[in-house]
Amino acid sequence: NNHPENKYRKWFSTAITYLIAGGLCWYMLWASAISHYTVLQNTVPEWTTYFCTGITTGSLSFIYAFYIRTFNRTLKYLLNAFTGGFCLGFILSLNCYDVCVYLFPDKVISYESEYDVVFPGPSRGKYGHCEAGLWLK
């Protein structure tokens, strides 16, 4: 049972698992950094997309656990499979719209807004006011 092939296979599968987990963590950090500099329209259904993606991956995990496992088909096991799939899909779909905006910059929507220039500008604390300020209508 302690063949060298099994040992190398175990090391290889562990290394691949850690690489994938590290890549997913890097993606989530990168996507959240992008979202700080991205403004989306209010009409974008962000939370609906996140929950639908989570429900879809959770359902696929539930179906996989139901059909692949021949034993231990308890309700707790199936609900754990659904919950794990839901969390994975939900977390990985967060900021997907921000990433799309970043990756496809030619699809920028611009609009005109009305504004007034006021003198003096907003307060800068105890150091006075800015020279001028903008008030959006």
TrEMBL record:
Q: Which UniProt keywords apply?
A: Membrane, Transmembrane, Transmembrane helix
Domain of life from the UniProt record: Bacteria
The residues that cross the membrane are 12-35, 47-67, 79-104
Q: What is this protein called?
A: Uncharacterized protein
Q: Which organism is it from?
A: Escherichia coli
